[in-house]
Design brief:
Elements: E1 2-7, H1 11-24, E2 30-35, H2 38-47, E3 52-55, E4 58-59, E5 62-63, H3 64-71, E6 77-82, H4 88-93, E7 98-101, H5 106-117, E8 129-134, E9 137-142, E10 146-152, E11 155-160, E12 166-168, H6 172-178, E13 183-187, E14 190-193, E15 197-204, E16 207-212, E17 217-220, H7 222-232
Helix pairs in contact: 1-5
């Protein structure tokens, strides 16, 4: 079941979006809710688990970026649907799954749904920040400060170049969908930017590891080891 929330202040636009999303998701069980204000959206999202939020950036004069920065710290994905095309790059930098300009088409919405459903989707823009919640407050973390990412149950742990690890509400698989090229899933539990790897070790008997620039070591799967070796040879 795909659970989606539309945050759009224009009723006719919201109705059209709901209808077209229903057509795009015809082969998948889904449920959609439509909300009109940031306050309604915050209250609903605090109380209900969802998979994706379709967010307008201008809601009765309210700045949707306020909710966007909170949303990208959550477990669900965010797709921005906005007439403010000049905000697309900034939205991608904060980690949205997709940005759809208004007026939108069925084909463009279908592309966003494909990205949502495809765990191996390739980002088209450069993520620069990850947002995390620490002690109830939102913290914006520059991606360049993250050394590597580790699965932590349904969440992910961000291991920093300096300081203690931070917990992100998104799973490793969902973060993999928005991380820029150069970040590799070297193991089922680890993602690392290739530039952070100093060298690879092969101990035989199927045991492989990556040595990072800080001399920390991470396990590497057999498949990932072969792929990395081919790139470096």
């Amino acid at each position: 079941m795909i659970r989606g929330v539309i945050v759009e202040d224009e009723p006719l636009v919201a109705q059209r979006l709901e209808r077209m999303l229903g057509e795009a998701l015809v082969d998948h069980p889904f449920q959609l809710w439509s909300l009109r204000t940031l306050a309604e959206a915050r209250a609903f999202l605090d109380a209900h688990p969802v998979d994706v939020v379709f967010l307008d950036l201008n809601l009765h004069g309210e700045n949707g970026f306020d909710l966007l920065k909170e949303s990208v710290a959550q477990a669900y994905h965010t797709v921005v649907i906005s007439a403010y095309h000049d905000k697309a790059l900034q939205a991608f930098e904060y980690g949205v799954l997709d940005f759809i300009g208004k007026p939108f088409t069925h084909e463009r919405l279908q592309t966003a749904i494909y990205r949502l459903l495809d765990a191996k989707t390739t980002p088209t823009h450069q993520l620069k920040y990850l947002a995390v919640r620490t002690h109830g407050r939102l913290q914006i973390v520059p991606l360049q400060e993250v050394l590597y990412l580790q699965a932590h149950g349904a969440y992910s742990q961000l291991h920093m170049r300096e300081g203690t690890p931070l917990l992100h509400d998104k799973s490793l698989a969902k973060l993999q969908q928005i991380l820029p090229s150069g970040y590799e899933r070297i193991h089922k539990s680890y993602i690392v930017e290739l530039g952070r790897i100093r060298h690879l070790n092969n101990y035989g008997a199927g045991k492989y590891e990556a040595v990072l620039v800080n001399k920390e070591t991470l396990p590497v799967s057999r498949q990932a080891f072969k792929s990395l070796k081919l790139r470096w040879e």
